[in-house]
Design brief:
It is built from eight helices and seven strands. The protein is an alpha/beta fold. The chain has a seven-stranded parallel sheet with strand order 3-2-1-4-5-6-7, with helices on both faces. Helix 1 (18-29) packs parallel to helix 2, helix 1 packs across helix 8 and helix 4 packs parallel to helix 5. The chain starts with 8 loop residues before the first strand and ends in a 10-residue tail after the last strand.
């Protein structure tokens, strides 16, 4: 299926590995030129070269922390008017809310709520003028099914979701859609760090917890970054212009609700 976005340009944040890389690869496969960001320059440049060789698209790596003003300025200097924006940033650490001071909350909000809003603000009007835009926010399954030890993430990402719910209804008339992907357990560094956190307090090994968590999922496994990237590419497609303000949960059936 041709997704109708060949030759478009995408800004994909935190794309050197994990879910962000999965999205970048899936878009490149569809012929989308990329500007990708991440904090680690070496890994980012390796990913850029890998994608160039594999798909023959233009890939510009911009090393920096997208959650900072400097990082955002550098990314937008390289890609001032993307057709596609994929917002992504690492989540805050797990813990007990009793131990989080105001600074921890502000840092979480900056990274997982305010940064994507500022990037949307920077690119949205040009998308509206061109009558095409696709914005995808990578949030978390915790938006629908909160994870107790991830309170910082629960709060910040849910705040972004509420903001987008209103904005997405205003932009769709101009063929600019804004949606969110809500990953459940995917085989990423983030999952491994959470397992390590829980292993310290449970008396079980990381491998034991990993097997138990995979077995508890209706799918019997964790998701792959390739599956996640494919979902992102479809939401960015020409065919997805009637989908906006939605929160697509990708969790292998883990959330038990009737309405997904």
């Amino acid at each position: 299926m041709d997704l109708g976005i060949r030759g478009r340009t995408a800004l994909v944040c935190a794309a050197s590995k994990g879910l962000g890389k999965g999205c970048a690869v899936a878009l490149a496969r569809e012929g989308v030129n990329l500007v990708i960001t991440a904090r680690g320059k070496e890994a980012l440049e390796a990913t850029a070269e890998e994608i160039r060789k594999r798909y023959g698209v233009a890939v510009t790596p911009v090393a920096g922390d997208i959650t900072t003003e400097e990082g955002r300025r550098a990314a937008l200097a390289a890609c001032a008017a993307p057709d596609i924006l994929v917002n992504n940033a690492g989540g805050p650490p797990p813990g007990d809310f009793r131990n989080w001071e105001r600074e921890a909350w502000i840092k979480a909000l900056d990274a997982n709520m305010i940064t994507p809003i500022l990037l949307i603000r920077a690119v949205l009007d040009a998308m509206i003028a061109r009558k095409f835009g696709r914005i995808v926010n990578i949030t978390s399954g915790a938006v629908k099914n909160p994870i107790p030890e991830l309170g910082l993430s629960n709060g910040a990402r849910t705040g972004l979701t509420g903001f987008v719910a209103g904005l997405a209804r205003k932009t769709v008339r101009s063929n600019v859609t804004i949606n969110s992907l809500l990953p459940g357990p995917f085989d990423t560094d983030r999952l491994r760090s959470n397992l390590e956190f829980n292993a310290k307090s449970s008396g079980k090994t990381v491998d034991e917890l990993r097997r138990a968590r995979a077995d508890a999922n209706p799918a019997g496994r964790f998701g792959t970054v390739e599956e996640f990237g494919d979902a992102c590419a479809f939401l960015c497609s020409a065919q997805a212009g009637y989908i906006t303000g939605q929160n697509l949960l990708l969790d292998g059936g883990l959330y038990p609700g009737t309405l997904g």
